[in-house]
Amino acid sequence: MSYTKRVLIAEDSSVIQNLARKILEFQHYEITSVKNGEQVLQLLEKEDFDIILLDINMPVMDGMECARSIRKLPDAGKAKTPIVAITGNAKNYSDEDFKAAGFDDALMKPLNFDRLVEVVAHLTE
């Protein structure tokens, strides 16, 4: 029996959140969605995920701060969860900025859904 991979999507845009959900559900991932980084941290207290997709610009807590917080979690397993940045402001950050914050990869908006599936599959195998 194969285990269904769990994906946490933190994205304040309902359109992007819903598109990513549909694409990944079609690939047989189990999806949970939230609207900000604070909700990500609250969920991680109770649940485990195989990968986290984090929008960079969100209200309450942005993706950069959230990624740094995840990497500092006392639960070593959760602290190592793969994290992918989703951003429309790539010009504001370098690859080094994303790496320093703890991201494993970054996807630019508008999202290339083939690339999304490829990155999620690669980081959860």
From TrEMBL:
Enzyme class label: transferase
GO molecular-function term, one example from the UniProt record: protein histidine kinase activity
EC id: 2.7.13.3
Modification 4-aspartylphosphate, positions: D55
Limits of the Response regulatory domain: 6-124
Gene Ontology biological process: phosphorelay signal transduction system
Family matches, as InterPro entries: CheY-like_superfamily, Sig_transdc_resp-reg_receiver
Record key words, sorted: Kinase, Phosphoprotein, Transferase, Two-component regulatory system
Name of the featured protein: CAI-1 autoinducer sensor kinase/phosphatase CqsS
Organism of provenance: Dyadobacter helix
Organism taxonomic ancestry: Bacteria, Pseudomonadati, Bacteroidota, Cytophagia, Cytophagales
